[in-house]
Structure formats: structure tokens, C-alpha cells
Amino acid sequence: MTASEGTILQAEDLTKEFKGFFAVDGVNLSIKRGSIHALIGPNGAGKTTCFNLLTKFLPPTRGRITFKGQDITAMSPADIARLGMVRSFQISAVFPHLSAIENVRIALQRQRGDSFDFWRSERVLNEFNSRAAELLADVGLTEFSNVQAVELPYGRKRALEIATTLALDPEMLLLDEPTAGMTPEDVERVAALIKRIGANRTILMVEHNLSVVSTISDTITVLARGKVLAEGNYETVSKDPRVVEAYIGGGHG
Amino acid sequence: MAVDVQTTSNVAPVAQRGAKGMSTLHMAIFAALLVAGLIAPFFLYPVFLMKVLCFALFACAFNLLLGFGGLLSFGHAAYFGAASYVAAHAAKVWGLTPELAILAGTGAALILGVLIGSLAIRRQGIYFAMVTLAFAQMVFFFSLQAPFTGGEDGIQAVPRGHLFGLLNLRPDFTLYFVVLAITFGGILFIYRIIHSPFGQVLKAIRENEPRAISLGYRTNRYKLAVFVLSAGFAGLAGATKALVFQLASLTDVHWTMSGEVVLMTLIGGMGTVFGPIVGATVIVTMQNYLATWGAWVTIVQGTIFVIAVLLFREGIVGVISKWVKRPL
To answer: What residues of chain B lie within 8 A of the CB of A169, using their CB?
Structure first.
């Protein structure tokens, strides 16, 4: 596979072996710039491992990853984030004892580059307050600005996490099960939010909720046992007999 | 982290809209402490007070690393003690003025912090604690064997000298105000670090390191930076103490000293601003006034520690902070 014009992220022969067990086995992925790409598959298919490999939170056993044409296989996770590919986590990843607005501000603070200035007052961070408030408003958290993240209900935590990720204004977002554990209303709100932010960004997400996947994603890759089983839009994938057998189980579709 | 900062509620509540630098409440407490510090020597023995001040600064330095960086070092005596030796040597053998001797000691602690810190931060939790302890033991054996440290005797009769070559520091009363200025300045500087853009990233790392990495922060560099800063302030405290007691000895580099500063911080309330000051005051006062009890002091200390862990895990100031629902 060669990287074409429209490809932002590409993985070739991506493999992760844990003591003889291949969690991810020779996966080729090519994510089109500006698309919403979903990664689905039954439990243990290797979706989250794949995420960890792409963002270098795990080193791959084999394979090559390129982002924006640059080989990132040997880069550190922080440097990948700096290139504009930011991930979320499956378990909600907030800074629990900081307020919602402080959570978002930590991400906005990255615009200053490194913050090693320990002699300066934190008041310099107030310049980010209005942008932080906007981001919180975007995800419906305005009234919770000064609430500690640990005290927010689950769905709100996920929303805060998305606001924090968006604060970096990344070219590419990797969302690990963004709607997991949410109430139906929250799911709808977050799905709409993802669709909206995906208008001018590339999004790769792991998602279990098929109705979310079918409504907002452009391309779907189905993983099973660490391998790519099928790829295409929802129509194609949901009719693929191998997918029906391995994942959907015949009843859906 | 060996001490799990994330799940326990050891961290003081945040109650701020926007970043203010210093809240009015904290400003009032600092002012009250300063007034108390200025009046105290008229009523209490200055040398005892200076010991309290040095340990308050030491505990605040340690708390910067544990309470705000989330890193439990079990070898902070290394920086405290090494700085104390270097300052004592500089004042006695090189004949430096006290401010330069203290600077030399602090510098030594900073360098030691860079060396040990850059190796230790590669490990996490209990392994981090063990690595810091191992290096601190090396510093201890170095202090025992090296020719200039005086072995079991330490460096005695360190001259206090003249501040900037002018002000004679021999009288305890004069020296007291210099020590008060150093301690107060040091603690205010630590306060500023906690409430700086750097401090904000530090808290994020303490709260959720993978998330901070995923936002693009190279967390190891921040951890090293706070380690070195903490070692430096511990050194400032140790160097000052050497001039106060005119002595640098093995006690200052012994592992029990590392344990004592953990104790002070936890009793006072880790992750709070004023906790380490309270903790240091309580422990030093106990050691001083119960000194006639001999070994029983350790037992009393141990009992208090057990009670603190069982009944008020947030420490004295942590508990008060919860009562008044304000971060202290």
C-alpha cells in the first residue's frame, strides 16, 4: 500500500504479540483525511490494542505507522500528540481533582508550548478562560465549570474529556468508545457532537453502539481476532456474510 | 506512586473561578504566620524556633514533590544532609560568608537532585521510592567515609560569620530573623511554583499521567524539574540548619531523617499549602519538649502517626480544609 493524497494515517502490517498471543495481527489501515472512520468488532478483537499501537502507548512488535506522510513508528506518545493526533481513553480520562474549566485549560495551555515557567503566576492562564468556557458550552457543561471533575456524572465526564481533547484543536482524533456507559440522551448528544467536530477533522473511533456507527461514520473497519475482516461503508459491511457471522450474528443488519 | 494520590481524597478541595495567583484567605494566613514569626523570638527560645523554621521549609520542599508531583521520595535526607555538609565546609574551611555558604549548599543539593532525579523518575510508585532510598544510602556512606565530612564527628564549630560581610550572625536573636526571611521566602517561592503554569501541569500529571501524555506533555521532564526544585529547597533548609546549629552531621543524611520529613508532611496534610508547616511544628516541638523522655519520643511519635493514619488521613490541615470547605 502506498500513501495516497487523501490518506492522513496509515498502518502497514501492524502487529502486537503478547507472549505468543497476537492481539493485533498484520493489520493494514488507511484513514482518509476528513473522514469519520469507525473500528468495530467483537470483544477481544484488538480494537483498543490497535488504538494503543497507533498512538504509541504500546510499542508494536512489527509494522509501520505513518501520519501525514511522516513515519511515527518510533515516536513517543507525547510527540505524536504534538503532531496533531490526540486520543481519548476508554475509561474516562479527566483530571479528577481539578475543576472542569481547569481540565480544559490544561489542554489549552499547550498553546504556550512547554510550561516550565515555575516562577510565573498562574494568572497568565486566565487568557485561556474565555476559550475554555466556549469549549465547555459546546459540550453542555457551562453550569459545571467550577465543579471538580470527580463529582461529575459519567456522561458529563466523557463530555468533559471530549472538550479537553478538542481544546488541542487536533487534526485527528482517536476516540475510544466515546458513548460507552452513557444514557440514551447522552449518546445522542455525543454522537451529534462527534458528527459536528468531524466536519473539519479526521476521526477514528472504536464504538460498540451500532446505531451511532451507522449514522455518523463514513468508513467502517471490522476487526476480529486481531485481523481485518471487512472494510467499507455501513451498507457493504453489514451485508458481508463473514461480518454477519463473526460479529452481528445474523439477527441484525 | 506508592501513596495513591488519585483515589484517596488527600488532595485539598479546589474552589476557584479562574486562576488568582494567591487567594485572599491564603494571603491572610501568610500574613498571620509572618506576624507570629516576628513576635515568637520574644517569647520562645530562638534556636528552637529556627529548628522549626528549617524543618518547615524542608517539609514544604518535600510536599512539593509528594503532594503536587505525586512522587514519594524516600531519600530526601540526601539533599538536606549534603547541603548541610557543603555549607558547613564552605563556611568553615573556605571561609565563605553565610549567604554564599548557604548558596553553595543549595547548589550542591540541586546538582545531586539532577543526578539522582534523572535516574529515579524512570521508575514509578514503590520502585521510585526504593531508587531514591538507595541513592540516599550511597550519600550516607559517602558522608561517613569522605575525608572532609569528619566521619562520626561531622563538621563541628561551623562559624556563622557575618551576613554579606557586615551583619554579625553570632547572636541567636539576629540569626533568627535571617532564618525567618530565608524560610518565609522559600515557602512563598514554593507557593508560587504550585500556583504557576508549571504547577498546573504538575497537578495534571499527579492526577492522570497517561492523559497528560496524550495531551502532548512530556511528563518525565516535568517530573525531573519538580524533583530538582524539591531537592534544591530541601538543600536550602539543610544548609541553613548547618549554620543555625553550627554543625553538619550524619543525622542529617541518615534515612531516619528522610522518614521524619515524610511523617511531618503526612501529619500536617500532604498536598495542602500549610500542612507541612504545621506538621514540622508539631514534630519538632514534640522532639524538643519530650527530649527528656529519651527513646519514648519515638514511641509517642509512632503512636501519633498511627492515629493520624487511622483517624485523619488528610492530615491536620487537610481535615480543617474539609471542614471549612476551602483549600488550605
So the answer is: none
At B81-125, the pLDDT tens digits run: 999 999 999 999 999 999 999 999 999 999 999 999 999 999 988
Beta bridge partners of A228: A223
The chain B residue lying nearest A120, using CA atoms, is: B196
Of B71, B85, B78, B87, nearest to B127 by C-alpha is B71
Return the HEC string of A108-145.
HHHHHCCCCCCCCCHHHHHHHHHHHHHHHHHCCCHHHC
Residue A36: which domain range?
7-248
DSSP state, residue B148: G
**Distance from B215 to chain A by nearest Cα, in Å?**
6
**Where do the structural domains in chain B lie, given as residue ranges?**
45-253
The rounded distance, in Å, linking the Cα atoms of A44 and B2 is 31
Coil, strand, or helix at residue A86? strand
Instruction: Tell which residue, A173, A161, A157, has the closest CA to residue A39.
Output: A173
A108 Cα to chain B: minimum distance (Å): 10
Please tell me the distance from the alpha carbon of residue B49 to that of residue B279, in angstroms, as a whole number: 14
Residue A102: which CATH number? 3.40.50.300
Q: Is residue A1 part of a domain?
A: no
